[in-house]
Design brief:
27% helix; globular; binds manganese (II) ion; 29 strands; single chain; binds sulfopyruvate; binds guanosine-5'-triphosphate; Phosphoenolpyruvate Carboxykinase, domain 2; 15 helices; nine-stranded mixed β-sheet
Length: 595
């Protein structure tokens, strides 16, 4: 959509459709944020936490039925079915519009409709983009204030004629003679529809996370990936981090891991290696483009973290613990007697007198967890002690390394370097991971999740693979591509690799491979380290070898499964990726273990 006349028409159309009692155009001010908090406290949505322990923090419990992204009812409504591809749910845009009109009709009755103008990306960056989210949820307003550049500046850009992505969100529970206000209004029926051609998003029935904060997955990944396809850039489910060596040289990496597979933890980690340090630009989404100098640049479109709470501790992620000391919204964690928060993994021993995420008294013998496994914190990025000032750079940061990862208890080595760009793209396309609680469904099942974008690619994933291949051009300095897996388990089911801050040892190897200062073993599946820096780390040779063990039969089976999987893309699956896979299969089969 373009220009302010469209904005006013858009607002009027939604008022006519949804029939709210009031309209509030958000300024993004701190007073307005306070007002949203007060409304949530008044409605029982939120509790204010202990001011001495968590300054200006809110505690929120959702309805137990509304705790994660709903992939089954997420739709890409492109004109042609083929443009959504085999990995997305597709609906005809005209049919979907009818459905939307019926769902949203009077859906905001009895509520205030908030108009949220926001920018994804640093204001003034040529890469940044504007959005409008219309919502009937004060929880969404408060979260969007933390997660995006929200308010007056965004509005004035749009009023000056900037295009914007239009999003409409309703919790789907009008207040009338049937419904009274409840702490967490939502609807049993949920629907998240994207119109990539007209750049619109409609979300109904859920108030939670990626379902409701439309700037995040809906805009910055699904719609933006389609814009990126058209305009030659990439919108990715990736963290952005800086790694600085003892000589003071900084390189920037991006890393794509599926939901709840370690992006936030890696992005914010503290290094255990003397002289090495890590800085954070973003923890979830990267928008990337090749600059005139032939280098790949990345910006973080977001302005906050919507991070997984369980597992976060002073030990594992001290920077995250610092972030969430103030100005943070906690959703579906446990509540302590003195109005502080707790979750599994925060401390070894849970405090007495906890209330669980459903509000019930909880005891540590209980089979259920005190915090929901997908409980989260929303916190401003600038509160991260390792926030890198380059995060505000209008051009973005130059990327030297791209990392793909997943949660795999077997097979996939701790780290591996691709032979070349095409092989790197194949590594991305081949990603699979054990399912986590971030989406509704069975946890633990291994599923294919190419580029960690399975739930987030707004167009045909076959075209998406080709779009990645097309990035390689003469005159461009292609980043090296790596794969990592922190989650390999031993026969007892324990993680072999300590992970978290020790991951810096892997980052060091990656850094030095890019610098060409460290050698590697060439194997049929890629380059593996000859050795990792183990100074100060207590891990046996045997364990380390397990992390790099190539199970040939296992890999052959894995590749056979990949052939089947890639078939779903038909002619859209790029031939060069197939050829690359054939070579790897052949070399494994013939035991060509090279060097
Ligand atoms: P989304 O926000 O859903 O996209 O997730 P994410 O990729 O940012 O995942 P996050 O860093 O929040 O980690 C999710 C879970 O994985 C947490 O419970 C972490 O404790 C755990 N985790 C993260 N890094 C490691 C690691 O290196 N080793 C192990 N064993 N667990 C890890
Ligand atoms: C994810 O699931 O990858 C998230 C959380 O980052 S949500 O914003 O809910 O999608
Ligand atoms: Mn994510």
């Amino acid at each position: 959509m373009r220009a302010s006349t469209h904005l006013h028409q858009f607002i009027k159309d939604i008022v006519d459709l949804c029939c709210p009692d009031n309209v509030h155009v958000c300024s993004g001010s701190d007073d307005e944020y306070d007002q949203m908090c007060k409304i949530m406290e008044h409605n029982g949505t939120a509790i204010r936490l202990n001011q001495l322990k968590r300054q200006n923090c809110l505690y929120v419990r959702t309805d137990p039925s509304d705790v994660a992204r709903v992939e089954e009812v997420t739709y890409i409504c492109s004109q042609n079915k083929d443009d959504a591809g085999p990995t997305n749910n597709w609906r005809d845009p005209i049919e979907m519009r009818e459905k939307i009109l019926s769902l949203f009709s009077r859906s905001m009755h009895g509520r205030t409709m908030y108009v949220i103008p926001y920018v994804m990306g640093p204001i003034g960056s040529p890469m940044s983009k504007c959005g409008i989210e219309i919502t009937d949820s004060p929880y969404v307003v408060a979260n969007m204030k933390i997660m995006s550049r929200m308010g007056r500046e965004a509005l004035s850009l749009i009023e000056k004629g900037e295009e914007f992505v239009a999003g409409v969100h309703s919790v789907g529970m009008p207040i009338n003679n049937v419904n009274e206000e409840v702490p967490w209004p939502c609807n049993k029926e949920k629907l998240i529809a994207h119109f990539p051609e007209s750049r619109q998003i409609w979300s109904f029935g859920s108030g939670y996370g990626g379902n409701a904060l439309l700037g995040k997955k809906c805009f910055a990944l699904r719609i933006a990936s389609a814009i990126g396809r058209d305009d030659g850039w990439l919108a990715e489910h990736m963290l952005i981090m800086g790694v600085t060596n003892p000589n003071g040289v900084t390189k920037y990496f991006v890393a794509a891991f599926p939901s709840a597979c370690g992006k936030t933890n890696l992005a914010m980690m503290l290094s255990t290696l003397p002289g090495w340090s890590i800085s954070c630009i973003g923890d979830d989404i990267a928008w990337m483009y090749f600059g005139d100098d032939g280098r790949l640049y990345a910006i973080n479109p977001e302005n906050g973290f919507f991070g997984v709470a369980p597992g976060t501790s002073v030990e594992n992620n001290p920077n995250a613990m610092k972030c969430i000391e103030k100005n943070t919204i906690f959703t579906n964690v446990a509540l302590t007697e003195d109005f502080d928060v707790w979750w599994e993994g925060m401390t070894k021993v849970p405090p007495q007198g906890l209330r669980d995420w459903k509000g019930n008294a909880w005891d540590s013998n209980s089979k259920s967890t005190a915090a929901h496994p997908n409980s989260r914190f929303t916190t401003p990025i600038r509160q991260c002690p390792s926030f890198d000032k380059m995060g505000d750079d209008l051009r973005g940061v130059p990327i030297d390394g791209i990392i793909f990862g997943g949660r795999r208890s077997t097979l996939i080595p701790l780290v591996l370097e691709s032979f070349d760009w095409v092989h790197g793209v194949l590594l991305g396309a081949s990603q699979s991971s054990e399912k986590t609680a971030a989406a509704v469904g069975v946890v633990g099942e291994v599923r294919h999740d190419p580029f960690a974008m399975l739930p987030f690619c707004g167009y045909n994933m076959g075209d998406y693979f080709q779009h990645w291949l097309d990035q390689e051009k003469d005159g461009r300095k292609m980043p090296k591509i790596f794969s990592v897996n922190w989650f390999r388990k031993d026969d007892n089911g324990s993680f072999i690799w300590p992970g978290f801050k020790e991951n810096v040892r892997v980052l060091k190897w990656i850094f030095e491979r890019i610098d060409e200062t460290v050698s590697a073993n060439k194997t049929p599946i890629g380059y593996l380290p000859k050795e990792l820096d183990r100074v100060g780390l207590n891990i046996s040779d045997d364990k380390l070898n397990q992390l790099f063990d190539i199970d040939i039969d296992g890999f052959l089976k894995n590749i056979e499964d990949l052939y089947n999987y890639f078939n779903i893309f038909g002619d859209k699956f790029p031939k060069v990726l197939h050829q690359k896979l054939n070579i790897i299969y052949f070399n494994l089969k013939n035991n060509n273990l090279f060097s």
